[in-house]
Amino acid sequence: MKGKLVLVTGGAGFIGSHLVDWLIRDNEVVVLDNFSSGKISNVKHHLGRNGFTLIKGDILDKKIVREAVKDVDVVIHQAAVVGVKKYVERPLDVMTTNIFGTHNLVEECLREGVERFVFASTSEVYGKSERIPLRENEDRVLGATSIARWCYSTSKAVDEHFLFAYYEAYGFPMVILRYFNVYGPRQETSDYSGVIPIFIRRVLGGEPPLIHGDGEQTRAFTYISDAVEATVLAASKKDAVGEVFNVGSKEEVTINQLARMIIELSGNEFIEPKHIPYEEFYGESYEDIRRRIPDVKKAERVLGFKAKTPLREGLKKTIEWYREYFSQNLTTVR
Ligand SMILES: NC(=O)c1ccc[n+]([C@@H]2O[C@H](COP(=O)([O-])OP(=O)(O)OC[C@H]3O[C@@H](n4cnc5c(N)ncnc54)[C@H](O)[C@@H]3O)[C@@H](O)[C@H]2O)c1
Fold it and tell me: From ligand 1's centre to the CA of 299, what distance in Å?
């Protein structure tokens, strides 16, 4: 992708800021972020550079959204309230931002006539489906609406429905990406983040990783550079429009294995992982997903995308980055 004006919402966040680093080489980039979880340190190396504009604002604010999409060719929509602990503790923020914020943005993009809109959806959309590997047209299997744990999945699924409906009604040029557990440098390490940065923070601090439940639940983790590549392909491949794609790797790992690998790669082999009940971390009504592995054939076929980074290699790079970060900042990434 070259010579475009690209808006990245949530561009000061983890995935968004890596996208900005890639896009700015050959494109002009506008970032819209309210800095609720994003950090200025993620984009400060671009401040003052030609072709980079930072707008501090909320996707819920129609006026700011209209200003941000003006003359834009491509929109990559990453802004959302993210993180398991957040959707258990702050379901109203999740529903409001993820549904109404996205709707605002889509309406303004339609008005502006953008040529491509790439939406960051999630593997959470599948809920607790056990039909592994999960294909894009798989049924969603979810718990009761009284359980906040499912609100994030639902908020993103509502967005997907809107996008399919706008595509049907107006040919809105959308592409939906369902990321599967992305990890890498710059990801938040507080307890509101994902399992990899939390384990790395604890292990580098000499503390045991806390494994929820028996640790035999599995995931397939996606290294950030692979997620960026898939997103850029989705923004440029013609046949991607109107479609939804899994973005992930097929490398399945249990959380017990993941904890061991992080301990080994950190060189802190004296640490023993500790198992704790889910309730201790998330409260009573939490339900975990036993296996979550993508079927990646559609992304391979249409986008020409295949995740390249083995988990061990991605973890090594990520641990090195955090080691350096903590040595300079003596704090968690928040
Ligand atoms: N990281 C993952 O493993 C993963 C997996 C599946 C899907 N996703 C999706 O990818 C996207 C990026 O996730 P991330 O991991 O980089 O999270 P992140 O929290 O680092 O990034 C989200 C960004 O959105 C911004 N933001 C939040 N609410 C906003 C609002 N109302 N207005 C403007 N900006 C707002 C935040 O400040 C932050 O910079 C999200 O949409 C998320 O749902 C991430």
Answer: 22
